[in-house]
Amino acid sequence: MKVSTKGEYGLRALLELTKRYGEGYVLSSEIAAARSIPENYLYQLLITLRKAGIIRSRRGPQGGHMLAKAPKDISVADAMLALEGPLEPTLCVQDDIVNDCPYQEGCAMREVWQLVTEATSEILHSTRLDTLAEREANLRHIVSTTD
Predict the structure, then answer these.
(1) What are the chain's domains?
(2) Rounded to an integer, what distance in angstroms lies between the CA atom of residue 8 and that of residue 115?
(3) Which helix (H) or strand (E) holds 65?
(4) Could you tell me the pTM of the whole model?
(5) pLDDT (tens digit, 9 = 90+) per residue, 21-37?
(6) What kind and span of H or E run contains 127?
(7) From the CB of residue 41, how many other CB atoms can be counted at a distance below 10 Å?
(8) Higher model confidence: residue 138 or residue 18?
């Protein structure tokens, strides 16, 4: 799995919403400014995250975006699957494509890609937005005290 700008910016936006969890809806312009994300691009990402059920959006004067559930209930894998697609690094280890590989029977690399997929999946599924936001806050605190 290669993380594109879509995944990177999407996670940044989710971290901002995690930071503001419980404060109500957050304007996309505020998310964009706080996380250095182009607002037009952010808008597309927020639509994707809304369709995946990760965030809620509301139009109007009291509108904006918020997490659809508690940060502890949203994994990085949830976000990456919505933003980037399958976690597998190659097609040959994707469940729905595995039988399409002509080298399936004797391919030593397939085992390697399966191990990579399992490790990646474990890390991303076990990392929750609340944990990630806490790490970010701690790192920012360390940086600010050393300046």
Answers:
(1) 5-146 (1.10.10.10)
(2) 24
(3) strand 64-67
(4) 0.86
(5) 999 999 999 999 999 99
(6) none
(7) 15
(8) 18
Determine contact, residues 100/91, Cβ cutoff 8 Å: yes
The beta-carbon contacts of 83-87 under 8 Å, at least 24 apart in sequence, are: 83/6, 83/7, 83/10, 83/11, 83/45, 83/48, 83/49, 84/1, 84/2, 84/3, 84/4, 84/6, 84/7, 86/1, 87/1, 87/117, 87/120, 87/121, 87/124
Residue 103 CB burial class (10 angstroms; 0-12, 13-18, ≥19): exposed
| Residue range 24-80, pLDDT digits in tens | 999 999 999 999 999 999 999 999 999 999 999 999 888 999 999 999 999 999 999
Helices 5-19, 39-51: inter-axial angle, 10-degree rounding:
80
